[in-house]
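Human:
Take a look at this sequence-structure pair and walk me through the tokens.
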Amino acid sequence: MFLYRKSGRRPRIRPADRLLWCCIAKCWTGWRAALYFVQPRTVTTWQKRRFRDYWRALSRTSKPGRPQISRELREPIGRMWQANPTWGSPKIVAELAKLGIDIATSTVEKYRPKRAGPPSPTWRTFLDQHVQELVSIDFFIGPTAAFRVLFVFVVLAHDRRRIIHFNVTEHPTAQWTAQQIVEMFPFDAVRRYLIRDGGGI
């Protein structure tokens, strides 16, 4: 049994042929031995493609993108922003949830009223103005040939992008890390800003 021969004009394989072989592959364990010129991986590729197309068709909507919320809901979101300027998006989402309204944080941000005054300085502006006073600290892991895990503590100066301090330990305790920060600079060269991430190490 075969679908096409290598010699001569290759017949066109129709969707019905692919569906037939997908069903045969599901119900017959010895289907691979019956193929001469169509490789088994071709049939499995058809199966994967049908599975992908099936779920793509189910998830496809008539209108792309996130549906818009109603005007009755947009207005209270705007009023909450204006009445509570210190609130963030999560706080507004939580208050709306108390009223039984389930809405995403990004949607609340979308309908935030525009600021009337000048915008606040950006992070890029802060970096440009204080780059001489900025250092960053972080840990990274280094496995050894003896299957030990070492934690490398690194301090990076932003002005010249250079490493100004590093040390290695197997047990990065809070006391050890604090001591590294003390040893980073002489007393007359302490930087003003220290940047770190929220890692568990």
User: Anything to note?
Assistant: The first strand starts at residue 134 and ends at 143. The radius of gyration is 31 Å. Residues 124-195 form one domain. Residues 1-7 have pLDDT under 50 and may be disordered.
